[in-house]
Specification:
This protein has 100 residues and is mostly beta strands. The chain has one domain (5-9, 17-99): Immunoglobulin-like, CATH 2.60.40. The protein is built from one helix and six strands. The strands form two sheets. A three-stranded antiparallel β-sheet has the order 1-2-5, with no helix packed on it. A three-stranded antiparallel β-sheet has the order 4-3-6, with helices on one face.
């Protein structure tokens, strides 16, 4: 993707939070799918390939606990909002953008 990027907060959030989100952009129209993935333990490393495969619904050992899809128009920065409580633990965000 040309000009693809994402902006999100890092750090701890309260377990009672019910909306999680970040923004993504691209220089060309794209389909975006974002997800939150639970880690097995603090500091666990997850490959970008595994996360991308899970978001593409291709065979993957992982699946997101929350996901959302959205159109990313060229030059715009929509917010991907994932709603629902999460169990306490460690999580990572991921997004997959593909040319429209």
């Amino acid at each position: 993707m040309v000009g693809a990027g994402a902006t999100f907060l890092t750090g701890r959030v309260q377990a009672k939070q019910v909306a999680f989100g970040f923004s993504a952009t691209a220089s060309e129209d794209a389909e975006g799918k974002a997800g939150i993935f639970r880690l097995r333990m603090r500091g666990e490393r997850v490959s970008a390939t595994d996360l991308a495969r899970a978001l593409a619904a291709v065979s993957s050992p992982r699946s997101p606990v929350r996901s959302v899809s959205k159109l990313v128009k060229a030059g715009w920065t929509p917010r991907f909002e994932l709603r629902g409580r999460l169990n306490p633990g460690w999580y990572v965000y991921a997004i997959r953008l593909r040319r429209r």
